[in-house]
Amino acid sequence: MTESISASSKHVLYAVRIIFERQEMQNIWQSHRWVVHDLVPLELAAGDGLPPINNVRLERLRASTDDVESGALFSAEASLDLHRAEAEAYAENLASSEPAIYVVLRDNEADDDYGDDVDVHLAELSLSPYNIQDIEDCGEDQIEKLPLQGPIAAFVEAFVKNHFKPEPFKKRKRDKVRIDGQDAGRGDPRLQRAGDVFRSPTGKPDYQ
Prior knowledge:
Layout: E1 11-24, E2 32-41, E3 54-56, E4 59-60, E5 73-83, H1 87-95, E6 100-107, E7 120-126, H2 129-138, E8 142-147, H3 150-163, H4 189-194, E9 197-199, E10 205-207
Antiparallel strand pairs: 1-2, 1-5, 3-7, 4-5, 6-7, 6-8, 9-10
């Protein structure tokens, strides 16, 4: 499914799967923390709908690894939402020292039926550092940065190339000053008017 999308489209949903781990902590203030392990393109079968772009619940992943005990892993399927209007923000992301995909986790509401093991949900994914700055200013969500690399990075680069057209720098032209001496010696015309000579009927000059 991700292979069929085009970077020339004005609006693209790029399906991904994110793997989370719930890590227990020996802390009287915090019993656990959520860590993002990986984010990979999601291959969808024909006829499958695209996953949502925000507010996705975490599902238990029935798998174990050498360093993570079974039952501590969770996953969420979501879509990166790319829009031509934000191409400049994606270009800024790619040009940074650490291009990133931003994963925003938000606490569940008290009445949400997610189970005791899951107290957060995937609020959204973003490629825009401008958008993430606004979320950080609120200070209520957990924001994780994952490296923007591999096929996702290649797609974002192609998308930016298609839709972001930076304006060329134009050097400001200064007003030209006449230095050819054409008006040299004439003086200020206002002074000339002030010093005009008026002649009386008798023919004698009368300085006003």
